[in-house]
Amino acid sequence: MANLTNPQDTIAVIQKYNFMFQKKFGQNFLIDTHVVDKIIRSAGLTKDDMVLEIGPGIGSLTQHLAENAGKVVAVEIDKNLIPILGETLVAYDNITIINEDILKVDINELAEKYNGGKPIKVVANLPYYITTPIIMGLFESHVPIESITVMVQKEVADRMQVGPGTKDYGALSLAVQYYAKPEIVANVPPNCFIPRPNVGSAVIKLTRFKEPPVEVEDEQLMFKLIRASFNQRRKTLVNGLSNSPEIPFGKEQITEAIVNLGWSPTLRGESLTLEEFAILANSLSS
Predict the structure, then answer these.
(1) What are the boundaries of each domain within the chain?
(2) What is the CA radius of gyration of the chain?
């Protein structure tokens, strides 16, 4: 059986099937065994685990997932890869391939069907163009997830783990840190992929919190406040929020809430911590 983390074997498979890379699917196949080993180790897989893999490509990571987990469900959007996966993964009886767009799949249903509703682990080399919608979709739909260990663009990994006052800090940082503890596991250079991406990559592990780290009465309102604050980063918090069609409060109400908390009305949203956004949301919703 081909070892797909070996560049020669990957090229052989691509040539055998005359496979054409599709830019629209952000396809970059991993060809570095050390990186795959790091991903598997970080994910902490056991034979009791069900793994959801997003974008298996030709199955480079999938083979290793199948060897370490109890069950692997791999969702691949590109129908041209389905026959290839049928061949590269033929030796494994614990893999289910689904030819679908991950953003349209009911993952709760998959967890129910293949794992009895118990928390699953997500492990993937994510397509970079839809990394954020995938990760936010997994969290916001309250899928039972234990952890997410994924390869993403380096700057997105950085953004997920930074705090206030840095240029990378934004809505994604806060959303990820509300749901999970982020930890960058490895930085991965472009030469670990075929074809080479134009950017550096990183493996990040997001370990799901049992309970969110802040108490907020209206989660949706808090995320609306966060989005509105960062949509207009250069504006003060008051102006950013009062200009947003998503926020159901007028400028006076917003100013009053901020002043009542003992904060300056000239404060910018990008300086607030997750806890402070929760406090503001609770103050406005009461």
Answers:
(1) 7-208, 219-285
(2) 21
With contact defined as beta carbons under 8 Å apart, do 82 and 97 qualify?
Answer: yes
Tell me if 85 sits within 8 A of 58, measured CB to CB: yes
Instruction: Return the number of other C-beta atoms located less than 10 Å from residue 69's C-beta.
Output: 23
Mean pLDDT by 10 residues, the chain (286 residues): 80 88 84 95 97 96 97 96 95 97 95 96 92 92 94 96 91 95 97 92 97 94 94 89 93 95 93 96 92
Q: Place domain 7-208 in its CATH homologous superfamily.
A: Vaccinia Virus protein VP39 (3.40.50.150)
What would the two tokens of residue 198 be? 């134009």
Q: Which fold has domain 219-285?
A: Helicase, Ruva Protein; domain 3 (1.10.8)
Residues 239-259 as b/e (b if ≥16 CB within 10 A, e otherwise) read: bbbbebeebebeeeebbebbe
Nearest alpha-carbon partner for 248 in 273, 275, 225: 225
Q: Which of 140, 44, 175, 63 is nearest to 53 (CA)?
A: 63
In whole angstroms, give the CA distance from residue 56 to residue 78.
Answer: 10
Q: Give the residue from 79, 93, 87, 104 showing the smallest Cα distance to 25.
A: 79
